[in-house]
Amino acid sequence: MNPEEEISEEDLFKTGEGYRNALNGVYRVMAGASLYGRELSYGLLGYIGQEYDKEETGNYGYRNAADYDWKVARTDKIITSVWEDTFNAIANCNNIVANIQKEDSTKFYLREKERKLIWGEALGLRALLHFDMLRLFGASPADDKGEKYVPYVETYPVMFP
Questions:
Q1: For the chain, is the Cβ count within 10 Å smaller at the N or the C terminus?
Q2: Per residue in 126-142, is it b (16+ CB within 10 Å) or e — as a string?
Q3: In sequence order, what DSSP letters do the residues of 8-53 get, joined into one string?
Q4: 80: left (phi over 0), alpha (psi -120 to 50) or beta
Q5: Rounded to the nearest 10 degrees, how much is the dihedral formed by the CA atoms of 101, 98, 91, 135?
Q6: Does the pTM exceed 0.70?
Q7: Is the peptide bond before 157 cis (omega within 30 degrees of 0)?
Q8: 133-138: long-range pairs with CB below 8 Å, 24+
Q9: What does the alpha-carbon distance between residue 108 and residue 115 come to, in Å, rounded to a whole number?
């Protein structure tokens, strides 16, 4: 039995509406404060980009980020939430992609057109989120030594050794 707010994956993907709800869930994670609702728009990135006077903020995590001091606990907490929530959204996209590929288009109101639209949207969001992680955590072209900086995850679930 699931808690009241949760729905099983099997029940979620029984209908086209379930797929739309799952995609909406990805957007809700992306709109959260740890992603585009703050940190990836005007929060963390604003301070890294020197858009604000760091002395004017009461958030020491932002002050340290403005100094590119990543190892301070307050800054690390912000960065960790960005990383974790981004890869949570990517996992949700991967779950949609994995399930919708094999679906019968009769589950969807607009049939094959809607099935392909949701599939493409999940693929596009996954690519955007991976790109942003590479933009934030990858090396600049001048510093790139050919290392892997960000995992590109295409499967659901992911099991790391």
A1: C
A2: beebbebbeebeeeeee
A3: -HHHHTTSHHHHHHHHHHHHHHHTSTTTTTTTTTTSHHHHHTT-S-
A4: alpha
A5: -60
A6: yes
A7: yes
A8: 133/83, 133/86, 133/87, 136/82, 137/83
A9: 6
